[in-house]
Amino acid sequence: MELYYLTAHELHDLLLKKEVSAEEICRAVFDRIDAVEEKVKAYVTLTRERAFARAQEIDRKIAAGEAIPPLAGIPVAIKDNICTRGIRTTCSSKMLYNFVPPYNATVVEKLEAAGTVMVGKTNMDEFAMGSSTENSGFFATANPWDPERVPGGSSGGSAAAVAAGEAITAIGSDTGGSIRQPAAFCGVIGLKPTYGAVSRYGLVAFASSLDQIGPFTRDVTDCALMLNAISGHDPLDSTSAPGDVPDFTSCLKDDVKGLKIGVPREYIGEGIDPAVKEVVGQALKLLASLGAEIEETTLPHSRYALPAYYLIATAEASSNLARYDGVRYGYRAEDARDVVDMFMKTRSRGFGPEVKRRIMLGTYALSAGYYDAYYLKALKVRTLIKQDFDRAFEKFDVLLAPTTPTPAFKRGEKMDDPLQMYMSDICTLAVNLAGIPGISIPAGFVNGLPVGMQLIGKPFDEGTLLRVAYTFEQHADYSRRRPSL
Amino acid sequence: MITIKDVEHVALLARLELSEEEKQMYTKQLDAILEYAQVLNELDTDDVPPTAHVLHLRNVWREDEVGEHLPPDEVLANAPETEGQFFKVPRIV
C-alpha cells in the first residue's frame, strides 16, 4: 500500500527499521494532497514548509540514535477551531478569516511533544455548527468515497483528510457528534472521549458543557496512540478532569468473552435506514460469535435528546459567540456610525446563516420569560437522559448502536431544512449530553459507502471501547479499505 | 407561535441586524424548531434537578500568582484598530 494510506503504527515500524524517513512520509502525504485536494477540499490552510522542517528534525533525531515516541514523524491534520500559534485559525468563518492565535491549544502542544508533524488546518462547518461541512464560510468538503456526497460534519475536513490519505491521523471536536458522524461517513475511526478527559484549552468554544476534542485514525491501535498523546489533566482548563491516564495501548486485546453489550432499542428503530440496521446486526452477530453477551436494552428518554440538545447547545453558543464583536480580533465592519452599530454590522456580516440561526434560537431560549420553559426544561431533561445511561451501565459494559441513521447523504440535500440536518445526529447527541465516551468504527458498506457502528462507554472507560473496537477490527476488514479517488 | 416582532427583539438582544428576508426565514424556522421542542413538555420534570454539566467538579482553585503572560504587542496583533496599548473602537456616545 502507498505510504499515505498506512497507519501511524505501521509507519513507526518502518521508521524504526530505517526503511523510510519522516521526510519521505511527509512528501508522500503532500504529494497526495497535491493530487487529490482539488477534489476533496479538506484543508483551509496547509503548513507545508513547517511540516518538512519538522520531519527533518525527527529524521535528525533518528540518525543520532535517539529513541522516538510512537507518533514521531506522523502527519496530523488539525481542525481549524483549535488554536495554533502563528498559524491562521478561522473556524471556517469570515468572522475569524484573519485570526492568528498568539498561543497553542494544549492538544497542539501535546502533539508537538509527541513528535507529530502538522500538515494543516482542516475545513469544518462554521464554528462547528453543522453536520455536513457545507456550512463552512469558505467552501464545502467532499466525501472521498463519493465526491457527490458530504463527508459529514462538523469535523468533515479532518475525517476526509484521513480517509483520502491527506493525513495519517487528525484531530477534531465533537459537541453533538461532530467527530463520530463524519468518521462514520468517511469510513475511519473517530473517538469522542469522556467530557474532561482531553484539555480544551485553545479550542474555540461552541457549547462549553458538551464540546470535547478527540482523534480520527485509520485503525483502533492508532486511536489508542493518539488518545495517549492528548489525554490528561490540564491546569489551563478548569473543566479538565483530574486523575491519572492509563496507557490505552494496554487495552488493545482481541477478547470480548463474557463482555456485556447492550443494544438500546431506540437506536435501531424508527428513522434508521434498514441497510444500516443490517450492518449493525451483522456486527452484533460477529461479536456474539466471539463470546460477547448481547442483549437488547432501553434508553427510554432517547427521543427527547434532540430537542434538549438544540436548546442547550444553542443557549451556550449564543453566550460563547457574544465575544465576536470586532474589537479585539477578526472581522470588523468599517462603515459603522458608532460602537453598537459596529457590533451589529460586524456580527451580521461576519457570521453565516446557520450560526445566526443558532444564536437567535439560543438567545430566545435564554431570554426573559422563556428561560424556564426552554433552557431550564432542557437541563432537567438532560438529567433524565444521563440517568438512562447510568441505569444501562449498571448492567452492561458497553452499548452498541449505529453512529448515523443513514450513510453519507448527497450534497445540498438537507441545506434548506435545519431540522432534517439536525436529525442526522440523532444517534450521537445523547452521548454528549451524558458526557460519556463514544467511538465510531467502520462496520460495513452499503452501495460502496461506509457505515459506522458506535460503541458507547462508561465515563473514563475509553479502554473498554478500544478493546471491543480492536476485537471487532481483528475479525472484520472494513477499516483496511481505502477509497479510490 | 413566533412572530416577526419576537425575531426582531431577539436579534437586537443578540446584536444582529437582519434583512427583511432573514427575518421571514428565521421566524418560520425558529417557529418550527420550537414547536418541535414542545415534545419536552410530555415529561414531568418538577422534581428533576437540572444538569448544567456532568463532571463532579466544584470550584477549581489556584494560587493567585503572576505567571507567564503574552506581551502586549502579541495581544494587540489581531485587533482591527489599536492606539498605543489599547484596542480602539468607533465613538461610543
UniProtKB/TrEMBL annotation, chain A:
Enzyme class, broadest EC rank: ligase
Keywords carried by this UniProt record: ATP-binding, Ligase, Nucleotide-binding, Protein biosynthesis, Transferase
Active-site residues from the entry: 79, 154, 178
GO cellular component labels: glutamyl-tRNA(Gln) amidotransferase complex
Subunit structure as annotated in this protein's UniProt entry: Heterotrimer of A, B and C subunits.
Annotated function: Allows the formation of correctly charged Gln-tRNA(Gln) through the transamidation of misacylated Glu-tRNA(Gln) in organisms which lack glutaminyl-tRNA synthetase. The reaction takes place in the presence of glutamine and ATP through an activated gamma-phospho-Glu-tRNA(Gln).
Protein name from the UniProt record: Glutamyl-tRNA(Gln) amidotransferase subunit A
Organism: Desulfofundulus australicus DSM 11792
Encoding gene (name): gatA
TrEMBL record, chain B:
SUPFAM superfamilies: Glu-tRNAGln amidotransferase C subunit (SSF141000)
Molecular function as annotated in GO: asparaginyl-tRNA synthase (glutamine-hydrolyzing) activity; ATP binding; glutaminyl-tRNA synthase (glutamine-hydrolyzing) activity; transferase activity
Catalysed reactions listed for this entry: L-glutamyl-tRNA(Gln) + L-glutamine + ATP + H2O = L-glutaminyl-tRNA(Gln) + L-glutamate + ADP + phosphate + H(+); L-aspartyl-tRNA(Asn) + L-glutamine + ATP + H2O = L-asparaginyl-tRNA(Asn) + L-glutamate + ADP + phosphate + 2 H(+)
GO terms, biological process: glutaminyl-tRNAGln biosynthesis via transamidation; regulation of translational fidelity; translation
Enzyme Commission designation: 6.3.5.-
Keywords in alphabetical order: ATP-binding, Ligase, Nucleotide-binding, Protein biosynthesis, Transferase
Cited function: Allows the formation of correctly charged Asn-tRNA(Asn) or Gln-tRNA(Gln) through the transamidation of misacylated Asp-tRNA(Asn) or Glu-tRNA(Gln) in organisms which lack either or both of asparaginyl-tRNA or glutaminyl-tRNA synthetases. The reaction takes place in the presence of glutamine and ATP through an activated phospho-Asp-tRNA(Asn) or phospho-Glu-tRNA(Gln).
Family membership: Belongs to the GatC family.
Subunit structure: Heterotrimer of A, B and C subunits.
Official protein name in the record: Aspartyl/glutamyl-tRNA(Asn/Gln) amidotransferase subunit C
